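In response to the reviewer comment on reproducibility (Comment 2.3), we provide here a single inverse folding case reported in full, input and output, so that an independent group could reproduce the run without further information from us. The structure tokens appear first.
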């Protein structure tokens, strides 16, 4: 049987044509939005139960990477899917423009400092991939520097995997038109102005450059240890469902176990 995840996973080394993946499509799902919401509810319950066992087992780590164009839905995905996980044992880390101290180190320094320890789940809202995306498109480092980072990233992720970290990477794929609509909604609603900056418009003019940069990320950094998934994300309900389904498949595969009790507890009752 083909797993759902197989539909959206980028095969290692495969060329990816993002223009050929319709952001409004719903691969592997042909029911309606209401059915998707029902299923998401069940999957959230499954993820919650998984995390309790993962935390109790405390043997392995799980790292989730979220990348997307602006307004691509990273925050929404965290709110709709990953809040199913208990904050005790889960941490979201957002990566913005590097600080002076961060820039004084190698690009993986701040990233590595935020990887999850055993029993923990780390969620990256942006990540080390910005160092081959915005850095490349905006010319923040010379090509001789960023072009070596794909291999450096693969090596680093392999190091984490060898130490017991499962890595799952999601690219939330929206259309240029959907971004326009979401930006316009932010502009029309004063309570959403904080989410918008004029810089976002400049980045939007570089849309094709970013799509090309993402194409290289997907082709060069989807590995058996740390696969990329391209999630058609114009329809938020499908995006949430797809991410939750893939996470549930990861959870079933990891199948963490409660550790045995430290002492023999048989026949013990709590004295009054
Ligand atoms: P936001 O996600 O809206 O809070 O924005 C974070 C900003 O930080 C985005 O514009 C990113 O492109 C930027 N950013 C993240 N990582 C880096 C990096 N390594 N170098 C430069 N800019 C970055
Ligand atoms: Mg932003």
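Designed residues, in position order:
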């Amino acid at each position: 049987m083909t797993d759902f995840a197989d539909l959206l996973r980028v095969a290692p080394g495969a060329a990816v044509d993002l223009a050929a993946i319709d952001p409004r499509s719903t691969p592997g799902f042909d029911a309606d939005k209401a059915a998707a919401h029902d299923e998401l509810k069940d999957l959230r319950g499954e993820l919650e139960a998984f995390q309790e066992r993962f935390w109790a087992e405390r043997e392995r780590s799980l790292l989730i990477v979220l990348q997307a164009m602006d307004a691509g839905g990273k925050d929404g995905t965290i709110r709709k899917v990953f809040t199913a996980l208990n904050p005790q044992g889960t941490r979201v880390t957002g990566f913005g423009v590097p600080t002076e101290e961060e820039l004084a180190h190698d690009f993986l320094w701040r990233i590595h400092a935020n990887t999850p320890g055993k029993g923990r789940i780390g969620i990256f809202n942006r990540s080390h991939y910005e160092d081959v995306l915005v850095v490349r498109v905006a010319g923040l480092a010379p090509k001789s520097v960023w072009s070596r980072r794909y291999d450096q990233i693969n090596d680093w992720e392999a190091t984490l995997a060898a130490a017991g970290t499962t890595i799952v990477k999601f690219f939330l794929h929206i259309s240029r038109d959907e971004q326009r609509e979401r930006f316009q909604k932010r502009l029309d609603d004063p309570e959403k102005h904080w989410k918008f900056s004029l810089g976002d418009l400049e980045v939007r003019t570089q849309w094709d450059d970013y799509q090309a940069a993402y194409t290289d990320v997907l082709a060069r950094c989807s590995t058996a240890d740390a696969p990329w998934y391209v999630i058609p994300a114009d329809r938020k309900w499908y995006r949430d469902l797809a991410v939750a389904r893939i996470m549930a498949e990861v959870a079933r595969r990891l199948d963490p176990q409660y550790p045995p009790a430290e002492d023999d507890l048989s026949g013990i009752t709590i004295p009054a």
